[in-house]
Every structure is written in structure tokens, then in C-alpha cells.
Description:
By secondary structure, the protein is of the alpha/beta class. It has one domain: Dihydropteroate synthase-like (TIM Barrel). The protein is 42% helix and 15% strand. The chain has an 8-stranded parallel sheet. A two-stranded antiparallel ribbon has the order 1-2. α1 packs across α2, α2 runs parallel beside α3 and α9 runs parallel beside α10. The longest helix is centred in the first third of the chain and has 18 residues. It is globular, with a radius of gyration of 17 Å. The N terminus is likely disordered.
Amino acid sequence: MSPSVREADxxxxxxxxxxxxxxxxxxxxxxxxxxxxxxxxxxxPAAVLERALEQxxxxxxxxxxxxxxxxxxxxxxxxxxxxxxxxxxxxAVRAAAPEAILxxxxxxxxxxxxxxxxxxDLLNSIHGLDAALLEAAVACGAxxxxxxxxxxxxxxxxxxxxxxxxxxxxxxxxxxxxxxDPGIGFGKTPxxxxxxxxxxxxxxxxxxxxxLGTSRKSTLGKLTGRPVDERAFATAATVALAAAAxxxxxxxxxxxxxxxxxxxxxxxxxxxxxDGWSGA
Length: 280
């Protein structure tokens, strides 16, 4: 496995241009499932819409909508139930925020196709990118976020992600539209999670855009002794480290707090400055 070179430096969606490497973008979590591990799941489309608009107003660059909990011990739901929860929520958010970038958190091709038709933009799959999902993404012309799922050491995670990414590019997806996520907390031990967090520069060096989801995860609870709703500071530590390592997107619950975190980290590590900045 050898590092690749990015062929383009930005993702363009709905008039927005996310320039990879310039700063850390925020993906705000919007759970349309009543049994989310973090306690923020919502059952009604109106409540999902309200949360999505709150996340966008707080500074989210992308809204990640999902309707099936993947917490440890979760019970899978039928495809029809996921569609029932998700598609009306996507339609509602799209109607209220026509310029928002909407990520669809699913690993079912039929769900993604339906959500994309309802106004979704990006596929975010926690089970990587199998042939059927890749076919759906290519058919929809959608960017993809490929997450590693399962226990593995750093080398194993990087090999798997790189192989899936190169298959996606070979299938016709532009490199700048293939985002890699190491899958913190998904089938990995706390030590494996910490090893991956310490190896983020190696993930970035693969040459694809990157995404990290550590928000409120159990490893942070083990380190701090805090319950799930008191892990914002622990999350912020990982988000700051991610920004310093060059991670492009962080997926978070607490958008307003993480907005401040990435702004300071990006200013120091990347030389980013807000519009109207005066250093005098």
C-alpha cells in the first residue's frame, strides 16, 4: 500500500465548496431513531427538522441524518421502518434548508437511493462500501464516506480503507468524493481506538479526504468516568487533535462547542483565519 496524491482539492455540493486541507468541517449528527446511544434520538419528522436546523444554525457544514441506531447491542430494524423514519425527515430538511449538504447514514442501498431521491447528497456507511452500495453511490453520483467497522490494528484499518477507496475510484467516483473514516468505537477495543487516534496523520497520508467520529464515544467515558451526556470536553480534545492531524470532517453532537474547538485548532495548526480577521 503506497500513499496516493489527491487529484482535486475540494468537494462541491449544492453551491458549497469544501476545500480539503483548508480547515476542519463539522458534520452535525441528526438522529431520526428513538434509541440512539447518546440519548438524542428523535421519533417525529418535525422534531428531526428542528434538530437539523439547530445544528445548521450552530455551524454544521454537513447534516448527517440516520434512522437506525448502531449502538452496542442494538436490534436491527426492517428496511421499511428505516424508510418510514428517514425519508420524510430528509424531505422536510431539504425543503426547509435547500442549500444544506445532507449526509445519509445508512448501509442499505435501497434506503440510500430513496433518501437521495428525497434530497440527500452524501452516503455515510458504517459498514464500508460493498458492491451494492458502491453501485448505488455511482448511480446517484453521490460522494461517499467509507467507515471501517470491526476490530483491527492500525495497519489493518488503513489497508482496508485504502482498498475500498481505490475500488470506489476505479468504479468512477472522483477521489475528492471518497472520504475515509477509521470507525472509532465500532468493534474496536479502547486500546485500538486510542492507537487509531494516535495514527491520524497516517490516515491523512493515504491521500483521500477524511472523517472522524469520536463524539461522546464509550472510550472517552472509560478515560474520564463521565456519562454519555457529559463528554463534550473529552470529545473536544479528540476534535482538536484531529484538526491538528489534518482530518477534514468531524462528526459531532455538540456542534456549537466543536465549532469553537476547530476554529482555534485550525488557526494554530493550519493557518486558517475567519473572514474579517485582523491580526493587528
